[in-house]
Amino acid sequence: MLAGEKISHICPVQSNAINTFHLRTKLMAENTDTTKPKGKFPSSIPYIIGNEAAERFNYYGLRAILTTFLVAQFYNPTGSTDPAIVQVAEATANAKTHDFVAMVYLLPIFGGMVADWFWGKYKTILWLSMVYMTGSIMVALSVDSEVMFTTSLMLIAIGAGGIKPCVSANVGDQFDSSNSHMISKAFDAFYFSINAGSVLSILLIPYLKTHYGPAVAFGVPAIAMAVAVFFFWLGRNKYRRIPPPKFDSNRMVILATAFLALLASYIYFDKIKHTGVGPVLGAWLLLILALAFIFKKQWFAKPGNFVGINLYALTNGGFAAAAKEYGDETIEGIKSVWRVLSVFAFVPVFWALWDQSQSEWVVQASKMDLNWLGIKWEAEQISFVNAAFILAFIPLFSFVIYPAFNKMGLTVTPLRKIGAGLVLTALSFVIVAIVQGWIDAGQTPNISWQIMAFMVLTAGEILISITCLEYAYTQSPPSMKSTIMACFLLSVTLGNVLVSVIQTNIKNGGFFAQFHGAGFFWLFTGICFATAIIFMFVSPFIKERSYIVSDK
Description:
Elements: H1 13-30, H2 45-75, H3 83-106, H4 108-141, H5 146-173, H6 183-212, H7 214-234, H8 249-272, H9 278-299, H10 306-315, H11 319-326, H12 328-344, H13 347-354, H14 360-365, E1 371-372, E2 375-376, H15 384-407, H16 414-440, H17 448-474, H18 481-507, H19 518-538
Antiparallel strand pairs: 1-2
Helix pairs in contact: 1-5, 2-3, 2-5, 2-6, 2-7, 3-5, 3-18, 4-5, 4-7, 6-7, 8-9, 10-11, 11-12, 12-18, 13-18, 13-19, 15-17, 16-17, 16-19, 17-18
């Protein structure tokens, strides 16, 4: 589970909305007349929270067993121990898993478009949840067909990705100035529901897979998703809804183009070229086409926005000339966006390593001694410690570690946190690489070694994920905050694309095929350490300036 889905990075999108809304509502509350009667807690909130708990149970339950299922069911069904067969099978399964995750974290862009342009949040959540539910049911019914199973995953990605930008924002929509003081209570419950649903599924679903088979293991999350949809629908008359704007046919053209581009690229890249990243490339092609359309209709016609100002600076002698036209404050805002993006350019490497804890690490765990704390665990269950460490580390870092460093005169800045997080992430891979070396030598190390790696990885996650959310909000101008948050979300997609490309190359016997066994983890260890070193050299040159929203 991503830090954001548990802390403030709730997946990234959901946590973004939480952070933004917390600040906004705090300011709202401060400027509200204290003599005004306080409103009631929205009766719609329990329906949203119940829906979220069931949906997270579905997603993380499926994710927990996906990689090992693909290996055993489709890519190495005979259980061959031939190193060449095992390498290709695991690479194929891991590539497909990362393709799936990449799509889940890319599609929120388009889910947000649908909600903001056409349906509004309620209808978007309801209808795309039905797509999500359909995909979940199909997964349980297609465990013997790779084609149908892959199609089902695509439907889940569309549904899960589509609702991500809407769910937490829908929580915020239920409040106004009369009851904004209760928003933290609602998001605390929201946060708890995410953790409760995900941890329970990570512990339960692998057990069901082992003892009752994959159809049951995938079927239970599907039932949970059906419950999620039904529970959300029950609150239909209680939601406070923000209506979408008037229908615009130009926007329909963008979405239609999106679908065709996605379909065409999937067929070409996945079915013809066998690259394994067709869906992701298709989504990016869609984004390019959509932006080109917007360029023509708006950005070129209104050069006073971000793109237009950058074009003006590019063609008129730089930002100094642009400042004379648009003002120093505007140009400083433009520069701040580029500074934030320069920081985020390093973040995909973190996600490339972090998301392997839900795929490649699971495969490794299946080859280890799973006895820990007197319990024989399933390999897919081990990632639950990530949530446990998150809950323990957040107060530890906030109230102990950060203050201790500040007292020693070592000021804890966002950029220093990110740099340290990259180092810790690399160190977690040092541990799993050493463990994999033991496995390659025929040993069966205890799972406690991987749990130690999870502890280090989670520390890196807190330093990077939460910090980037804060950085994205505080360092970007008010008019660009949503866009910058979307860029942070895209870093998850880019990280998973990187892993997918490498795994697909391994599957096809390409350059990266030489990095097998422990070598694979050492490869990513080196990539992350190199990224951390470059970041440490670059970060001192990155200026920081906070933009805090104010009602004044």
